[in-house]
Specification:
The complex is a heterodimer of chains A (117) and B (159). Chain A has 117 residues and is α+β, with helices and mostly antiparallel strands. Helix content of chain A is 44%, strand content 19%. The longest helix of chain A has 33 residues. Chain B has 159 residues and is α+β, with helices and mostly antiparallel strands. Classes of the chains: A alpha+beta (117), B alpha+beta (159). The interface between A and B is medium-sized, with 29 and 37 residues.
Chain lengths: 117, 159
């Protein structure tokens, strides 16, 4: 029977792997968006706002530009403050006004499935 | 590049993803709110402004004043003309659903490739009406829908 220390170590390791996977997925999605929106690589990706560095893009428009041609790519408002991106019957929340870097893990996974597989 | 220089690069990097001067005028005339929703914050704040006889220029307005990359001196007065919202702010202010004759119509944003394979945008409520505006700028397309709804009493400004 594993003791508490073993469980904590296992959880911690699993979390590190998850974070690494998430980072890889984010980077892969970002590369695809940069390919589709070349001007993104020519602009400042971070600006200093309210005491911290923030990325403003990729935004929703950049992401939609990167979607595969011919895909049923469209968005439908689902709730105030959110946007519902739907492709081939699947869907995910996009938080309006927030860049890709501030979207949910679920959203990044969804875009990774669309753009990178 | 210094922090100040990077900061100044912000407004110019956003050019083209907020509404044009023309649509900014139409939005204001239609009663579009001239403030910035709290959840969007300073980084989403753009205004068409004018210095003396100059052509209006797009500036970034932070809560503590202008933060732009222009070359005007401090003694030159800038007149704020029109708010120039990002597409996502207009989408946030559009109703996500319109009820009409017992049916619900949902807001949709569609990428649209024309015959020359140039990507444009449609912001529509499918099957609700025939109005559609196709624009290369998502912000302008969203602004067109906002103005249409306002002109037809299908929308009221959100706080």
């Amino acid at each position: 029977m594993p003791n508490l220390t073993d469980l904590t170590t296992a959880d911690s390791t699993e979390k590190m792997i998850d974070e690494a996977t998430e980072k890889e997925m984010y980077d892969a999605v970002l590369r695809k968006i940069f390919e589709a929106v070349p001007e993104l690589s020519d602009i400042e990706k971070e600006v200093f706002i309210s005491g911290k560095w923030r990325r403003l893009r990729p935004n929703l428009e950049d992401v939609l530009r990167a979607l595969p041609i011919g895909a049923m790519a469209w968005c439908k408002a689902r709730d105030e403050g959110h946007f519902f991106g739907i492709v081939d019957g699947k869907s995910v929340f996009w938080h309006l006004g927030k860049p890709l870097s501030e979207q949910s893990t679920e959203c990044i996974e969804f875009l990774h499935t669309l753009l990178c597989k | 590049m210094t922090d100040q220089e990077k900061s100044a690069a912000g407004p110019s990097s956003q050019a083209g993803i907020t509404v044009s001067l023309e649509w900014a005028k139409k939005l204001k005339e239609s009663g579009y709110p001239q403030d910035v929703p709290e959840e969007f914050g300073d980084e989403q704040s753009r205004w068409w402004c004018q210095y003396d006889d100059d052509e209006p220029t797009l500036l970034w307005l932070q809560s503590d004043g202008f933060n732009d990359n222009d070359t005007h001196g401090e003694d030159e007065e800038c007149k704020v003309l029109y708010k120039s919202p990002f597409a996502e702010e207009i989408l946030r202010r559009l109703p996500w659903k319109i009820q009409n004759d017992g049916n619900a119509f949902f807001l949709r944003v569609e990428p649209y490739n024309d015959s020359l394979d140039v990507l444009s945008w449609r912001v529509v409520y499918p099957n609700l009406h025939s109005f559609t505006n196709i624009d290369k700028s998502l912000a302008n397309a969203a602004a067109a829908m906002w103005c249409y709804l306002k002109e037809n009493d299908l929308i009221s400004p959100k706080p």
